Amino acid sequence: MGIKNKRANGSNECSCCSGISIQTPARTFNRPGLDSISYRVGDHRRFFQTMLSQIQVRPELRRFTSREDSDFSISLLDAWALIADILAFYQERLANESYLRTARERRSALELARLLGYGLSPGVAASAYLAFDLEDAPGSPGTAIIDVGTKVQSTPGQDEKAQIFETIERLEARAEWSAIRPKQAEKRSPGTAGSCLYLKGIANNLKRGDGLLIVEKELELTHNAGGWDFRKVSSVAIDPASDRTIVILDNYIKNIDQPEGNCSVYAMRTRAAIFGHNALKPTDPNEIISEPTTSIDASKSEIHLDSVYSQIVQGSWIVLTTGMGDSFKVEPYWVNAVGEETLAQSGIAAKVTTLGISGKNLSIFCPSETTVHAQSEEIALADTPLQNYIYGNRIKIDRLSKRPVQGQKLAVRGKRARVRINLKALTLTSVKDPKVTREFQPGDELILTEAPAIDPHFGDLTLHLMEDRGFEGQISDVIPWQISYVPAAKSDLEVSEIVELKNAEPTDDGFVELVLAAGLKNIYDRASMVISANLARATHGETTSEVLGSGDAGTMYQCFSLKQLPLTYISSPTASGIASTMRVWVNDMLWEEIPNLFANGLHERIYAIRNGDPAKTIVQFGSRLPTGQENVRATYRRGLGAAGNVKSGQLNILMTRVAGVKGAWNPLPAEGGKDPQTLEDARLSAPLTVLTLDRIVSLQDYEDFARSFGGIVKANATWTWNGTRRGVLLTAAGPSGSEVNPGSSDHDNLLAAMRRYGDPRVPLTIRSGRVCTFKLRACIIPDPNVSTDAIKSAVEAALRNSYSFEAREFGQPVTLGEIISVIQKASGVIAVNVEALYRSDAMQQDLQPILEARMPRPGSDDIQAAEILIIDPSPADLVVIS
Q: What tens digit of pLDDT does each residue of 565-598 get?
């Protein structure tokens, strides 16, 4: 300290300690709401000065007047001041770790939470539906039993690790259920086909200009009464995949009323003329003849062709045509007899084919202007493909040898239906902002997002459409001819969903109609739609077994640590929302897992699982274990967390070989996987247990209970009205904003738990939160000493941190002032001007002073989930002015 020994005027009093006073323990004050508290009673300087000031106070030290740093005694005080400083520092750290708000170590939060009976969540395993495909080759069994524990592994993406899922339910799979297709075609009368016919086969050798005769069975039997029509081929296309020929005719088919099974189609392979068609009649050269006056003699019921046609046979059809335009006449005739003879007329002699025929109106035909279409060849009609889309809760499929049963889950996948605009432009109004409209021109194709609503009086349509770039709108009063349904594009992405079967009903036309418990979410293109009924639930984690150790009857509360981590926890309808997958045997007897060992008997076969550090799981027994050698063993699954939230179709490697099963896949992304609870999560969740006390009474209880439930990270509760009584609408979201949809384990278990711990008579609806995004554009005046890239990175990081899903709440708005404040605090920013702030789904990219995150209206019967507004994942538009 350099304090020198001085005495004033020979006085015995020493002035070396003047100005030094007792400074410890220092007084501390902490206002409420601090993230850390001050608890140090002193530091090195204060401790040292306090000890120096006590030298003169103590009589035994009065003669000690040295204050030099080199003095051993002063050095000793300096050392103890350092020790006291260190102890005070750690005392302050320990004091901070004693409060949930100020704790910095996860272990501290864990121990504090245990005082409330709350344990930090060890995480939750993701779950998914798996669809199994069976071999359908001749000789394959056609059925297979998928047992519990069947393993399927994911194909990892970039920077991902392979994840293993196991089935948690037994499945009896069938080959015919692997890829069920909806009814693609139906028998349809040619009279309703318009100008298009579908014929079986692709080698029909039809070409443009060929004649086709369509006749009803009645006419074929009587040769006199019954409907018929004759048309010419305009174009031909073949469909090898369906083994059919598509024929476009020169006009609509008329006069056919019978169904497809009562009609026949004949291709007329040969054209001929009537004998004498080219003969010259002797007439007065001065006479003008407007039209031929000679007609075929109908009384003989025969005609003579202009040559020999050996391909025309008895029991076939011919068609006579004459004239053009309005004077065009056509009639079919049945060939009763075929013969050959030599005729001479008007100086022309030839050997010809003579046909004995049955039919009407033969006398209307003149030999010189009549064409004979002959050599009829029957071509079987093919079923007419169904062009419409599939929606609603009914799907007609081919008959199955065994129909799926009520309550069975089905996976539906396919591309969404498309429509094309015809002739006239349509203007759509945005479903998100009625002020925004967009016009689409004829030829534009749009995706159908909802089934068209048909006006019962006028037949006009109300359409909900979406373009490929994401704009979604609606339009009313659309005349049906203004749109046409078109096949899905090759570039269209497939969508999928899981539905529940209510019933499978056979139909009168030999098909099966699947009746779903609820309507389809998507509108599907019929040709691309596939249904799988071989579905089983699976969860993340691989089963393993291990010997925990040996029991010792002399030790109470014996503990064992698991060697293979992490222990899998799955979603469950409990207060915590999770349940372990562990089963423990002692001397081959199964013991029971309980939440904690408090208030349990000494001889009960129970154990509890303690999850402290995420890398350590302890199994603790309540009663004394029987002494034995390696007699304590466990079976459990390992693996959980967000890594299990794999994408749709990513679970595709069948690890457990099952006879007759060729593969597996997940129709929907795996969901519900959550990492072990972090310190920040624990700060929010731990107090919730004493707010609800495992019971739900008030509206706030619904929200608090959901937030403490495994797999749920954000929740919002509000009152709704269902038309007759008040109910509760709960908006929930999983980790990183993952959806909590009906049918998912998180949704169903949360609903079951809330009904169990709350009033089951209160109407309760759980909806997945809507994650919406916003964009901005800002100009930044930088610090000239900081690089542009560093400033952009700092601003981007600040925005991502402040407007991430974890940092925002349902209904929390985004304000311009808040944006400016966040950017201004970033390193290297001198000033900022925000030029645009808008929601990503808005059509106008202007500057909005406030962006609202929509919330459900209390008491409303319009059930809309709450929104959470976060920054768009694309890079922010930042301009640094140099």
A: 999 999 999 988 999 999 999 999 999 999 888 8
Residue 175 lies in a domain: no
Residue closest to 196 by CA, chosen among 153, 247, 157, 158: 247
Separation of alpha carbons 543 and 638, rounded Å: 7
- Measured between alpha carbons, how far is 769 from 589 in angstroms, rounded to an integer? 45
C-alpha–C-alpha distance, residues 403 and 392, integer Å: 20
Domain span including residue 360: 185-279+294-384
Q: What average pLDDT does range 489-516 have in this prediction?
A: 91
Note the pTM of the prediction, 2 decimals: 0.78
Tokens representing residue 469 in the block: 């770039």
CB-based contact 227:219 (threshold 8 Å): yes
Assigned token pair, 318? 């011919």
What is the Cα–Cα distance from 485 to 451, expressed in whole angstroms?
A: 12
Cα dihedral 218, 219, 221, 225 sign: positive
Domain count of the chain?
A: 5
Average pLDDT over residues 289-307: 74
Task: Residue 511: name the closest of 390, 395, 397, 393 by CA.
Answer: 397
Exposure string over 618-641, b if 16+ CB within 10 A, otherwise e: ebebbbbbeeeeebbbbebbbbbb
On whether the CB atoms of residues 515 and 396 are closer than 8 A, the answer is: no
Contact present, 122 and 656 (Cβ < 8 Å) = no
- Boundary residue ending a domain (726, 748, 764): 764
Structural domain contains residue 650: no
Question: If you count them, how many residues does the chain have?
Answer: 882
Round to whole Å and give the CA distance between 633 and 229: 83
Q: What is the DSSP string of 452-510?
A: EEE-TTT--EEEEEE-TTS-EEEEEEE-GGGEEEEPPPTTPPEEEEEEEEEEEEE-TTS
Cα–Cα distance for residue pair 486/464, rounded to 1 Å: 16
Residue 318 in any domain: the answer is yes
Residue that has been written with the tokens 């980790």 in this structure: 735
Distance CA 505, CA 513 (A): 5
What is the 3-state secondary structure of 107-158? HHHHHHHHHCCCCCCCCECCEEEEEEEECCCCCCCCEEEECCCCEEEECCCC
Structure tokens at 339: 């013969």
Residue 276 pLDDT > 90:
no
Same domain, 802 and 847: yes
Cα 500 to chain centroid distance, Å, stands at 16
